[in-house]
Amino acid sequence: MNFKLFLVVLGALIATAVAFFLLNVFQDAVAERVYLSDTARERQVNEAYEELAKTIKRYSVKSTDTERLQNWIKKQDYVHLMVYDNKSISFEGGWLYSPTAPEGTESETEEKNEVEYDESSPRITPETFNEDLKNRIIDFNDGPYYVFIDVFREQHFYRIMFFVKAIVCMLTLIGIVLIYNARVLGRVIRLSQRVQTVSDGDLDAVIEATSNDEVGLLATNVDNMRDSMLERLKNEQEAFDANTQLITAMSHDIRTPLTSLIGYLDIIKSGKYNSQEEMDKYVDTCRDKAFQLKDLSDKLFQYFLVFGSKEEKELEVFDASILLHQIISEHSAEIMSYGFTVDLDYRIEEDVDIKADVSGMRRLFDNIFSNIMKYADKSSHVRVHAIEENNQIIVRVFNAILETSRMVESNKIGLKTCEKICKDMGGDFSYRDEGPVFVVRIILPVYKEIEEGGSEEGDPQEASSVVSSDGGYKTPMSERITRDLTDEIERAQLRG
Q: Which of 419, 386, 383 is nearest to 399 (CA)?
């Protein structure tokens, strides 16, 4: 805005100079036409001589009657009078203008006849006097005298134009600056009105930036604040709606097993069973319902643990091949110990980094593999594909769904938790039901650090086998993962 104000002031000065120049041109044109032309000069001088002649005749004025001549001059604006003869100057007074002499000082004029004063010569010599418009011989009461009259009526016009030019130039300079200030003030007032509208509750009122100066930047920042408030309110509303739906769904999911649990316990307490086997059946059913409630409470705890935390997780840099290898191996070994068959296609090479939260990663795969154990069909293979491509780690998990599992209503708390965990780590989580197969996809961005030399860490190795230092070939990563996975399964079976 300071630079713009400088330009405005500079423009105002230029406009003032142009106005001053145009007024000078106008002044010269008017003065030339009305006061300085030959016709105007002749008319003004003739009028002055006529007035002088009338005064001499009316008051019998002598050439030495200074008082009378002074009174006449006072009545005549901008007139210079000189009365003289060959011997001396009898009277000189009035308005005297000289381009080089200060106003009101005496100066010679080239238009006055030059007379050599001599006491021995005649007082006037009409035969040698050059009579013209301004130089004439006038009869006073004490005889004829040489008279010189000049009129400077244009000086009155110049004085008026001086004040006109001063006022116009001042108004031009101040007016342009005031107009600019009024526009800035108007934008500030409009911005204040829009902010007041937003503060009154109308968050949809857009605050537009109409300029690139400080006021426009302020409007942009205020509108960004409004957008942030809208986004926050939207997120809060979405969270409120999601929590409301979750509470409604959880209320139904908890009420159903809880009602059954209470009913079976009442039967056991009242002894309304026919045999010990029937009572054991009721006890087993109660135990299943209790574990079902525990599972729901665990999922609810995980949900609020992920969504209820307002603190951002501090992500750390890990080697993706090691971290994912360990997590996937542990969970694969666990479900294989329960009779599932896992087909693993692992193509993440070493030295590929990701930024992740370890506890979040474990919670993510806990949800995925616990759902497999509950809803997947053991007769079909569980396929896990992990690959690095286009600077992304992509993990896909495929499993067949039991027909009986499709009849179970699910509130998808675990899947929502997985989605939030991936989002917090800068990735993406998606799932889809492809008929008999349920597919989960996890995407995590590869982390690359720029070194001082300009090279990047974490560039993926494209070859499936790597040359070792002794000239041989290292075991491909997928083979090592399969071998480690087998060891995990054996250890799990021994623990079982």
A: 383
Q: HSE-up of 235 (CA within 13 Å, CB side)?
A: 7
3-class DSSP assignment, residue 461: coil
Pairing of strands 382-389, 428-434: unpaired
Provide the 10 A C-beta neighbour count for residue 270: 8
What amino acid occupies position 15? A
Calpha distance 249→255 (Å, rounded): 10
Verdict on whether the full-model pTM lies above 0.85: no
CA distances to 238, 302, 390, 400, 453 from 430, rounded to whole Å, are 19, 19, 18, 17, 38
At a CB cut-off of 8 Å and minimum separation 6, what does 125 contact? 86
How crowded is the C-beta side of 420, counted as CA atoms within 13 Å?
A: 21
Amino acid at 366: D
What does the pLDDT profile of the chain (496 residues) look like in tens digits? 577 888 889 999 999 999 999 999 999 999 999 999 999 999 999 999 999 999 999 999 998 899 999 999 988 889 999 999 888 888 999 887 544 433 433 333 445 555 555 556 788 888 888 889 999 999 999 999 999 999 998 988 999 999 999 999 999 999 999 998 888 888 888 888 878 877 777 777 777 777 777 777 888 888 888 888 888 888 888 777 777 766 766 665 677 678 878 887 888 888 887 888 888 888 888 888 787 777 777 767 666 665 655 556 678 888 888 888 889 988 898 889 888 999 988 888 888 888 888 888 888 898 889 888 888 888 889 999 999 888 899 999 999 888 776 666 566 777 888 888 888 888 999 988 877 889 999 999 998 875 444 444 444 333 333 333 333 333 344 454 445 545 554 554 444 4
Phi then psi dihedrals of residue 407, to 5 deg: -85, -10
Q: What DSSP assignment string belongs to 394-406?
A: EEEEEEEB-HHHH
β strands within 203-306, DSSP E: none
Tell me the Ramachandran region of residue 38: left when phi exceeds 0, alpha when psi lies from -120 to 50, beta otherwise: alpha
Q: Is the torsion defined by CA of 106, 108, 109, 113 positive or negative?
A: positive
Question: Hey, what long-range contacts does 152-155 have (CB within 8 A, 24 or more apart)?
Answer: 152/78, 152/79, 152/80, 152/95, 152/97, 153/35, 153/44, 153/77, 153/78, 154/31, 154/34, 154/35, 154/36, 155/78, 155/95, 155/97
